[in-house]
Amino acid sequence: MSEHSLRREIAEICRRLYERFYLVATDGNVSARLGEDRVVATPAGANKGFLTAADLVVTDLDGKKVSGPGKPSSELAMHTRTYRERPDVRAVVHAHPATATAFACAGLPLDACLMTEAVVGLGAVPLAPFAVPSTQEVPDSIAPLVRQSDVVLLANHGVLAAGASLMDAYNKMEGVEQFAKVLLFTRVLGGPKLLTSEQVTRLEALRERYGLAGKQMSCSGFGGSAAASSERETLLDSIALQVMQSLARRS
Ligand SMILES: [Zn+2]
Questions:
Q1: Domains detected in the chain
Q2: Catalytic: which of 75, 174, 198, 204?
Q3: Which stretches does DSSP call E strand in the chain?
Q4: In angstroms, what is the span from residue 96 Cα to ligand 1's centroid?
Q5: What is the pLDDT of residues 113-135, one digit of tens each?
Q6: What is the pTM of this model?
Q7: pLDDT digits over 193-233, tens only?
Q8: Chain mean position to CA 10
Q9: Is 75 an active-site residue?
């Protein structure tokens, strides 16, 4: 894809992320590989809802600016580390969608075997340990996980989604937020009915049939297991109850 097309697609994806409230104000960043050793990315401090193709910056794989009007984002180190760890990744989307970010802030990975689409397209979404923004801790915290999973929750922060294209990474961001929402909603509907191990095996086999590339981890916590009454389940029930009470107070 030409640089011009990549720039237009990044600006369009930023607009959609903003319109879906996956990021607000100057949150988040989006990038794509431009050849093997260059990256085109959103600049620091920009509201992504208003960004144009001309505002983007080009950097090398160390995050050093090559061209563009603005400064590279300090969070670009997450992107460049992902490209270094994963030669197959062509694009990275980082955003803070509220529900998935709530799981990241509650210290909960999204690893339940629950939704067919999530098992096939995302797998278990792991949780990277807390890291202070703009420090080397951030790329170091995601590196071991991004080798195994295209989508990673960042503790007390947000979500990183990598893909074979910009649209692939963006779709994974939509998918993880939907998965988080559905999991949360099930808590107020009597709790999730988890898939069985046999169902998960059959679903995972579909990845090959659909020709899905990328990396994902296997979900855990199958239907019928003793995990149903675990401490984590109790915590999830408590979170769901608090969310519902908060919504009720607002209405
Ligand atoms: Zn962020």
A1: 3-250 (3.40.225.10)
A2: 75
A3: 29-33, 38-41, 57-60, 65-67, 91-95, 127-128, 151-154, 158-163
A4: 6
A5: 999 999 999 999 999 999 998 89
A6: 0.89
A7: 999 999 999 999 999 899 899 999 999 877 754 444 466 66
A8: 16
A9: yes
